[in-house]
Amino acid sequence: MVRATEESEHRLQRIADRRRIPPVPDLRFEYSYVRSVAPHVHIERAASPPPSTSDKGKEKAAEGLVLESRGLEIVRVDWGRILWITTRDQVVSPLLQGALWGVASHFMSPLGAVLGAHIRAWWARGAARGKDAAEIEGNGVQWLRNWMGSILSASVPTVSSSSRLH
User: For the residues of 37-106, what is the DSSP string, one character each?
Assistant: First the structure.
């Protein structure tokens, strides 16, 4: 019993290894927003002051080393471009998408109703099945029966009437 369980787990593990799917991409808003804003934020390193030789200069030089080790940076931001990118991503794009979906749903609802009515009529419209005309089934049922028959006939051998036991 334990052996059968181990074999099935091993088989399932092999199947899982074959069916590895790629990781889901990161589609969060922040990542794309930061990427679109990044070219408009400029970071510059500040030049450290030149060392001096006097006592006061030595103290300033020591302070300069401390400033230099901290990594003094100047950040310059193009606020106009960042404001436009933020407005575009947060206001304009959702507004246009919502308007497009609203207009599309206005025209697609009647089209979907008509298409659904045609499919339901086709599904229900029937044909006589077999010798008896009273036995009527819809086109959809016929299609499903034929489809399942084609699947099952390919995998299950049919038994002829002469080989059956009476």
Answer: HGGGEEEEEPPPPPP-SSHHHHHHHHHHHHHHHHT-EEEEE-HHHHHHHHHIIIIIHHHHHHHHHHHHHH
- Altogether, the residues listed in the chain come to a count of 166
Q: How far apart are CA 79 and CA 83, in angstroms?
A: 6
- Distance CA(38)–CA(103), nearest Å, equals 35
pLDDT digits (tens, 9 = 90+) for 42-87: 998 876 555 555 556 555 555 544 445 566 889 999 999 999 999 9
Q: What is the pTM of this model?
A: 0.43
Please answer whether residues 14 and 42 qualify as being in contact, where contact means their C-beta atoms are separated by less than 8 angstroms. no
Residue type, 113: A
Q: Which of 156, 147, 126 is nearest to 138 (CA)?
A: 126
